[in-house]
Design a protein that fits this description.
mainly alpha
Length: about 190
């Protein structure tokens, strides 16, 4: 991030001092890289409505990168990050086109990195997910058994009973759980 900020400030200063080549060697419709899309003092647009294309493209690239990032998978964070695109667009309207081209290349690179990361992730098949779910269920059942044993040894029969009841709800036909519940009830005198 410090590199992005320092390069942005350097490009901004180069545009302010009319660095040789930046005023006449642009690309496409913007030949003057020192001109912003909108001059705030006069509210004039040197490139007309076409001047807003680069800031708009930058905002759309940012929103697309948010969708592909890990933080964008959470709905609340996704909305908050997309709302950050509005001030980005307003700030982009005031930046020289040289800065906007740098930001656009940076955003495109970031989007490419996210896309490569998605392609590099291992694919999970339905059988792999089912196996992981079954293992998760088995480990929870084992945990409930271990907890009930631990509570019973510590003398907390109510907590041990609660663990065994939770296990009997998860696996209703398990006879060993029913036997242990009966055993708990006889030892506690209930």
């Amino acid at each position: 991030m410090p590199i992005v900020i320092s390069l942005t400030l350097a490009l901004r200063r180069m545009c302010d001092s009319l660095w040789p080549g930046l005023t006449s060697e642009g690309a496409l419709y913007f030949t003057d890289l020192t001109a912003p899309p909108v001059y705030l003092q006069t509210l004039s647009t040197p490139y007309g409505t076409a001047g807003a294309i680069l800031p708009l493209g930058l905002m759309l690239l940012y929103a697309s990168a948010v969708d592909r990032s890990r933080g964008g998978s959470s709905p609340g964070i996704n909305v908050a990050l997309k709302l950050c695109a509005i001030p980005l667009y307003i700030a982009a309207l005031q930046q020289p086109h040289a800065v906007l081209l740098y930001w656009l290349s940076h955003a495109a690179t970031q989007l490419g990195v996210y896309q490569v990361a998605v392609l590099m992730e291992p694919k999970q098949t339905a059988s792999t997910e089912a196996t992981q779910t079954d293992q998760g269920d088995a480990s929870l059942d084992d945990l409930l058994l271990v907890l009930s044993d631990s509570y019973e040894k510590a003398g907390n029969k109510a907590a041990a009973r609660a663990c065994l009841q939770a296990l009997s709800v998860r696996q209703p036909g398990l006879g060993s759980v029913q036997e242990r519940l009966k055993q708990l009830d006889t030892t506690s005198g209930v």
